[in-house]
Amino acid sequence: xxxxxxxxxxxxxxxxxxxxxxxxxxxxxxxxxxxxxxxVPPLANGMATAADWMSAASFISMAGLISFMGYDGSxxxxxxxxxxxxxxxxxxxxxxxxxxxxVPDFVGDRYYSNAARTVAVICAxxxxxxxxxxxxxxxxxxxxxxLEVPINIGILIxxxxxxxxxxxxxxxxxxxxxxxxxxxxxxxYMVPAIFISMMIAGTPLPQQxxxxxxxxxxxxxxxxxxxxxxxLGFTAYTDGSKPMIDVFFITFALMVGTAGLPHVIVxxxxxxxxxxxxxxxxxxxxFIALLYTTAPAVAAFARYxxxxxxxxxxxxxxxxxxxxxxxxxxxAWVDKNDDGAVQYVNGKAFAxxxxxxxxEGAQGQRLISNALTDNDNELYIDRDxxxxxxxxxxxxxxxxxxxxxxGGLAAAxxxxxxLLLVISTSVAHDLIKKQFNPDISEKAEVTIxxxxxxxxxxxxxxxxxxxxxxxxxxxxxxxxxxxxxxxPVIIMGIFYKRMNKxxxxxxxxxxxxxxxxxxxxxKFINPAANISDNWFLGISPEGIGTVGMVINFVVSFIVSRIxxxxxEDIQELVDSLRYPKGAGExxxx
Amino acid sequence: MEKGKLQEYWQTNLKYLVGLLxxxxxxxxxxxxFLAEPLNAIRFPEWSGGGGFQLGFWFAQQGSIYTFVVxxxxxxGLMNRLDKKYDVHED
Lengths: 589, 91
What we know:
The structure holds two protein chains of two kinds.
Chain A: H1 3-24, H2 30-35, H3 42-53, H4 56-69, H5 74-98, H6 103-110, H7 114-146, H8 151-201, H9 206-209, H10 221-232, H11 244-260, H12 262-265, H13 274-310, H14 320-327, E1 331-333, E2 356-360, E3 366-368, E4 379-381, H15 385-393, H16 398-436, H17 442-465, H18 471-484, H19 486-495, H20 501-525, H21 544-561, H22 568-577
Antiparallel strand pairs in A: 1-4, 2-3
Helix pairs in contact in A: 1-8, 1-16, 3-8, 3-13, 3-16, 4-13, 4-15, 4-16, 5-11, 5-13, 6-7, 6-19, 7-8, 7-16, 7-17, 7-18, 8-13, 8-16, 8-17, 10-13, 11-18, 11-21, 13-15, 15-16, 16-17, 18-20, 18-21, 19-21, 20-21
Chain B: H1 3-34, H2 36-39, H3 55-85
């Protein structure tokens, strides 16, 4: 069977599995719809959290990014895992004890204020939409590359699947589908990684393999990479080029942002006990760590394979994957010195993304019309292809390539579903039930929740088909806002009894306004000024959420000291959050 | 549950948190970022099969993640014991 037949088979089987689970786990009550009846075993919740968290970006893009960033890629590895320690130690158990459905629920009740609740709802919806547009795009990209259907059709198919199991099953359906999706995605990630580790380093453990000797006798892989980088004019692979202060602030913003993302937090409302919330954060990180410790190995292998294959090779002698991906526009080559060979050195070959003319060059390469730069680099490679093309580059069998496609889809769909549920709960529960119509019946609330999931799927699909040009930039936004709004407000709600509504609202607003203004200025209003000389203390917009978080903490502390203490019953509520005993099941009241 | 006992339980919890978060910070930010460069002079021993790893780089891309996992399970263990001791565990 060829790659395409395998892909149809494997993707078809996994989709049938997801739909089967959705029918089996149809939700009846609001509790089942919002928090899966708070009956998910901790191990299963850990798996579902891992799938929820690992998006198309983790699966498809991250190893590619690290491959090109070397040491600097550590910001993603540490930033997107370290937040789970904060979740397990500082957030999850207390929020589970609180026992409601959503993050705005906690903010609204703890700060006895619908204004605070509304700010939280707006943040939750904004953060989730930002994120979900990227997932839908990821679904479309995988479909178009592997099944050769247009991106838009791919997005429509993805929307149909998510629509089916999210609308029908709510959190219950999503949770058990995510468990299946985790299994698919981790298998799809590990199989090629193990194959490649065997080939390059002679050990089946990728985590060990990228610190091992090359099987072809060229010494240690990482030393070899440092040497190649030196030769070609790149910074050494094991040595970063970002300033240390920025690495620190970005990593911190990603960690704190992770701990503040509503679709991650809400997963800890679904377990039966406080004890389970703690341990399921641990399991989640185990399942995440499996992929996150493999990714840097995949990155190093791919980097080595790439440089070895293309550097100074005649275009005519390049393997077929090079031409396949050139066909999709993700690789481009310009023969600056007319020697027919690929020169790959530091620097951009030309400005921007390639815009192809319909003509072919002397070697049969696709010609581009971009303005060339005056350095010697002749090669453009999109970072996203490193994971997707890795099995082809390594010459693995067709079924492995098909598996990677199914894995990418599982990663994108599972994250999209989790986000869509946050959006629908925010609308049905936090806005309609809590603010506009408290007397609404449970049945009507579930119906509204279903309708809002459906609407959210349509909006997300629209953004996937017509992506706003700034999708990549808004990711910084999602993390920055989560870091500067939710994280401090929840932490203080638990650990600082004296915190009152005046402090919380002032803190959230100042944190959000500062962070948003900084990002909007450098990313949208004046992108030309987005260089380190102009940054506040040398902190990039990606890392500014850390400063926003500090501002939030300081402002809310000061304001709370000069305004009245929270009422007695709120102080008692905080006391009761601090020990597990008596944690009832999650409830609406 | 009486106030004084609860206070004691909470203080112990805070002590655990401070200790574990200090390790969290030192391993990721300390060893993986601030001290990465000097640590890169040290290599893994040959017999480990990972002799190509410079220590600072390894902490940033591998070691910190393993540490995070261990920290959470240590906290789970400590708290389960503490909950029992103060009789605030569930069921």
